[in-house]
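ok new one. same drill as before - structure tokens go in, u give me an amino acid for every spot. 233 of them this time. try not to just spam alanines like last time pls lmao
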């Protein structure tokens, strides 16, 4: 059977496909550029009762790494130490909020694209302050105000294998219920999250591997936040 598909037509068709592909790539790049042109915020929430100590120091490393990803990323560290956040009572959900009320508009702000939760490890799990914070986050589930925000978790333990990963997974379980996009620390460490060892009298900076996971977590949260922001816009 004779065909009319000549070499010239083939070349013309290929050219159209290349142009279309180039246009798609250009549109994608423009969308990413547009997203990066607008400032986004990444917040670290320190759930240690010891203000300014190891969990706080580790979160600062993560946040600084996040800020280095793009000049339009703002960072903020919130320390729960000293705040009055009571036990959550589902029968009276607002009764024990205390200072948690101040955090509601901050965390639900659409400008906030990423949240990194940091907790010390107590008996292979999160601190009671972290649990109270996460329980009070029930308020966000009314309209899923945290949905789509990127979340990462950091844990600081007194030993290299001191329950950090168990703590991270426990916190992540609560974040999944908020419809958040939960990520681990990025490559090359690439695990569930940042695992820090307080091995030298509250000087976590000496834990080179732990600091690498903290930096990789911050970078990964920032990268995914930028990608999702580009898609949304």
């Amino acid at each position: 059977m004779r065909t009319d598909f000549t070499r010239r037509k083939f070349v013309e068709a290929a050219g159209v496909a290349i142009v279309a592909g180039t246009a798609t790539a250009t549109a994608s790049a423009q969308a990413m550029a547009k997203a990066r042109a607008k400032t986004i915020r990444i917040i670290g929430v320190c759930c240690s009762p010891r203000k300014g100590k190891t969990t706080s120091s580790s979160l600062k490393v993560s946040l600084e790494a996040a800020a280095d990803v793009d000049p339009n990323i703002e960072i903020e560290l919130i320390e729960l130490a000293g705040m009055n956040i009571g036990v959550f009572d589902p029968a009276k959900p607002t009764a024990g909020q205390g200072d948690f009320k101040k955090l509601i508009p901050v965390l639900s702000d659409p400008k906030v694209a990423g949240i990194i939760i940091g907790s010390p490890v107590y008996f292979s799990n999160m601190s009671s302050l972290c649990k109270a914070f996460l329980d009070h986050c029930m308020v966000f589930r009314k309209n899923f105000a945290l949905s789509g925000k990127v979340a990462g978790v950091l844990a600081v333990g007194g030993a290299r294998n001191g329950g950090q990963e168990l703590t991270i997974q426990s916190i992540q379980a609560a974040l999944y219920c908020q419809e958040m996009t939960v990520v681990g620390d990025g490559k090359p460490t690439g695990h569930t999250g940042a695992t820090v060892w307080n091995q030298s009298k509250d000087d976590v900076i000496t834990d080179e591997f732990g600091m690498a996971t903290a930096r990789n977590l911050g970078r990964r949260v920032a990268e995914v936040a930028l990608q999702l922001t580009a898609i949304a816009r």
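The radius of gyration is 22 Å. and btw The chain has a mean pLDDT of 88.
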